[in-house]
């Protein structure tokens, strides 16, 4: 699987799949890259040993530049791309692809070191988490300036990330949003110094991958349900919590925490480090 793609470089380590987008000269989200991303997502949908997917770019200047503008010359060929057949077929192929990625059972993390506009920004917005280089990264939805609207999920994903008013500012203004601003408004989780970006993302990916089986997926499902309805979210969290309490890991880890000093004044002052030591 790791060498089966022309525009992606895949490596696997410790329950994490590292995906490096490599589609010169600017990592255009064209038919070749979309097809490879779709094939990779299909492979990951049943890969239970992979718990986290990190998306990165081989080009430090461009994560994914944007969608292929030549699609405007032959929209029928674009619409006919056979991507994500399990998704709603009334959606265009790029929307279906991003929904397939958004629906993956793994936690998806985008590592943004360069520019991501249009479909590239929407690909990032479809992921669970996004981290950006403070000095180098920027994002934009510039489609309205070109006579259309974001067509790969931006109008649907951004309101939940940054709110309605800022979504409209991003889409209607069409300006480049730097990493610091993207962090402040919620488009990315954090903007960190470029020299720290790899460490921040890789450390988080490893921590998530090391969680007991089912925990990351349960947390994500509970949060996603709560976004739609607080009441339904609480019920879903309660249902999932009961299932996790039935797993041996919950009892084993609680006992280990107590033995290591939880419930004591000294242990509680350093509880995060204590938990790290037992997991």
TrEMBL record:
Q: What is this protein called?
A: Enoyl-CoA hydratase/carnithine racemase
Entries under Pfam families matching the protein: ECH_1
Cross-referenced Gene3D superfamilies, in alphabetical order?
A: 2-enoyl-CoA Hydratase, Chain A, domain 1 (3.90.226.10)
Residue spans making up a coiled coil are none
Q: Which organism is it from?
A: Frankia torreyi
Q: Which GO terms describe its biological process?
A: fatty acid beta-oxidation
Q: Name one GO molecular function term.
A: catalytic activity
InterPro entries given in the database record: ClpP/crotonase-like_dom_sf, Enoyl-CoA_hydra/iso
